[in-house]
Amino acid sequence: MCFEMRLYQTATEKNIADHTFKYIKNQSMTMSEEQLIRTILRMNIPVIQMEGETYVFITLDFSSWCTSNSMSRPLQDTKGVS
């Protein structure tokens, strides 16, 4: 993707996050991990309280598992390469 397209995409995402998502209560793009977990649990209280059912919520941070991230991040930041 060329620099101009990446710039347009990131500017659009930033504007949506800052100006649109504040009106959408349960969006998760701008939530912290803790806020997201609390929202998921609050929305699933009726499901969690069902007898004979057990639900487990697991969160994984895949960015910490990426061993090539440390090498690709500077290239992506300086050259706009994904």
UniProtKB/TrEMBL annotation:
- State the Gene Ontology terms under molecular function: ATP binding; mRNA 5'-cap (guanine-N7-)-methyltransferase activity; RNA-directed RNA polymerase activity
Q: Which InterPro entries match?
A: Mononeg_RNA_pol_cat
Per its UniProt entry, which superkingdom is the organism in?
Eukaryota
Q: Domain named RdRp catalytic: which ranges?
A: 1-68
Instruction: Provide an example Pfam family for this protein.
Output: Mononeg_RNA_pol
Q: What is this protein called?
A: RdRp catalytic domain-containing protein
**Organism per entry:** Cyphomyrmex costatus
